[in-house]
Design brief:
The protein has helices at residues 4-17, 21-53, 67-70, 76-84, 87-97, 140-156, 164-176; strands at residues 59-62, 102-105, 128-131, 136-139. By secondary structure, the chain is mainly alpha-helical. It has two domains: 1-102, no CATH class; 106-180, no CATH class. The strands form two sheets. A two-stranded parallel ribbon has the order 1-2. The protein is extended and about 65 Å long. Mean pLDDT is 77; it is low at 160-166.
């Protein structure tokens, strides 16, 4: 993906070294357009790759409405980074390129609920989640993505041809747990 600080530094350099306001405005506009086109190209390539790798599957994505409002009480750097993030555009690209249904689920609480027993998990380390009830450790991001997937499965119906227990066991063993 394209790194944002490079573009920020380039714009700052243009603002600093070009004294003529009309010329500076024109160059900054060109730089913003170049950045926008490169990001859009990268998003198109990534979304095409995702859809081509999984042609006959439905997409389950987080419902990101209101994410900009959630960052209002954060610092300026965080808000700047959040507002430059083209999440909605990427989701729309996946949705229109995919032949199957795209489901949006609420991401609230996805990394704080144990998928095995349903209890609230603790986060003793930054990326580790631990369930005291069933004594299991999870990677926090994988736990959240699995919870989003399971919520999407619940909204789409039963996608597994085998029993739910067998499919849960295979998902659990291959995907969820932290390997030692």
């Amino acid at each position: 993906m394209i790194r944002k600080p490079i573009w920020t530094r380039r714009r700052q350099k243009l603002q600093k070294h070009i004294r003529n306001p009309q010329k500076r405005s024109k160059k900054l506009k060109q730089a913003r357009g170049r950045q926008r086109r490169r990001i859009k190209d990268a998003l198109h390539k990534q979304s095409t790759t995702i859809v081509r790798e999984h042609p006959d599957t439905s997409s389950v994505l987080e419902d990101m409405k209101g994410i900009r409002k959630s960052g209002e009480d954060m610092g300026k750097k965080f808000r700047t980074h959040l507002n430059r993030w083209p999440y909605s555009e990427f989701q729309k690209m996946i949705e229109y390129k995919s032949q199957k249904k795209t489901v949006y689920v609420n991401p609230r609480g996805t990394s704080s609920e144990c998928p095995v027993c349903g209890e609230k998990v603790k986060h003793p380390a930054w990326k580790i989640s631990k369930c005291d009830n069933c004594d299991r450790d999870y990677d926090r991001d994988r736990l959240a993505s699995l919870a989003i997937t399971l919520r999407g499965i619940g909204m789409c119906g039963d996608p597994f041809p085998v029993s739910a227990l067998a499919s849960w066991q295979s998902m659990k063993n291959e995907y969820l747990y932290i390997r030692d």
